[in-house]
Design brief:
Helix content: 40-55%
CATH class: Alpha Beta
Number of domains: 1
Largest sheet: 8 strands, mixed
CATH topology: Rossmann fold
CATH superfamily: P-loop containing nucleotide triphosphate hydrolases
Radius of gyration: 20 Å
Number of strands: 8
Number of helices: 13
Strand content: 5-15%
Strand order of the largest sheet: 1-8-7-2-6-3-5-4
């Protein structure tokens, strides 16, 4: 049976000490004017990058039909009463609690190595947060080398972040999955030079604009250890969740991964694991049927 354990255990004392060390502004009115001017300047620079037609409203983004296949493992949508879906709801609650005491909007989901399930976690978390209609949620695929988001939602081959960074179109390739209450920006076609694209100044401006539009931005990034791409996303994110996988992640890999992460942005770790790749085993359903002797025997046989 799969396990996802929330490990968002942060020290509030450290945060409180940081807050206490901040001095109150001597000239509050002047500070407010400077901040307003900075927001206006940033908005103007972003509008010049993304195009004036998208500078004001999310209504510009087209809605796309989608389909959830069993192999997508989107339990937050396909199995809302499952134990896995409940764990993602709990994770969403913990993130909302965390941002009561710190700025937290752009959340990076990464792992130490491939095959630990970080893309599945990112998609499920985004779907969970998107269910709260008062919060606009974007799932941003930052893994340009091995894109999976379009496949998970059955979107087909659609342009995404890669095409926009390459300047092939002025249109931002963001799509709304209306019944899910979710917006997605897939990676698009895999580029030959992903690191160079991510290092362009356009990405920083894009993230600033997204921060104006959305309440949550869930970033599915590449793994930490093999690539340098994740360090770029980590600088742009407010916090990082590290996904590990039972039976896959080794202690030395985990240690190295934790060394790479910026401690001030590290939110915690998730343990993800399954003894069977089948969707029916990925998350065991809970409820009266799940605890019956019949279901327990079936689960033990699959394990």
């Amino acid at each position: 049976m799969s396990q996802i354990f929330d490990a968002l255990q942060r020290s509030e004392a450290e945060h409180a000490g940081t807050e206490a060390s901040r001095t109150e502004p001597t000239f509050p009115v002047a500070t407010e004017l400077l901040e307003a001017a900075e927001r206006k300047r940033r908005g103007s620079s972003v509008a010049s990058v993304v195009g004036p037609e998208h500078a004001n409203s999310l209504e510009q983004f087209p809605s796309l039909p989608f389909s959830i296949l069993p192999e997508s493992r989107l339990v937050s949508v396909a199995e809302e009463e499952s134990l896995g879906a409940e764990k993602f709801r709990f994770l969403g609650v913990r993130l909302r609690q965390l941002r009561q005491s710190r700025p937290l909007k752009k959340v990076l989901i990464t792992s130490t190595i491939p095959q630990e399930g970080k893309s599945t976690v990112a998609a499920n978390l985004a779907c969970t947060l998107g269910r709260r209609k008062q919060h606009k949620t974007l799932l941003l695929e930052g893994d340009l080398r091995r894109p999976t988001v379009a496949q998970k939602f059955g979107l087909g081959k659609v342009p995404g972040l890669s095409e926009w960074l390459r300047g092939e179109s002025e249109t931002m390739h963001v799509y709304r999955l209306e019944t899910l209450g979710l917006w997605v920006m897939p990676a698009g076609s895999a580029p030959e030079n992903p690191l160079e694209l991510l290092q362009s100044g356009k990405l920083s401006s894009l993230m600033n604009q997204f921060a104006e539009w959305f309440d949550w931005i869930i970033i599915d990034s590449p793994p930490l250890l093999p690539l340098a791409d994740t360090s770029i996303w980590a600088r742009l994110a407010d916090g990082t969740l590290l996904v590990t996988r039972k039976g896959i992640t080794e202690k030395e890999q985990l240690r190295r991964g934790l060394q790479v992460l910026e401690r001030s942005k590290f939110l915690g770790a998730l343990v993800n694991g399954s003894s069977d790749a089948a969707h029916t085993d990925y998350y065991q359903r809970y409820g009266p049927a799940a605890s019956s002797p019949q279901s327990l025997r079936s689960a033990s046989k699959r394990s």
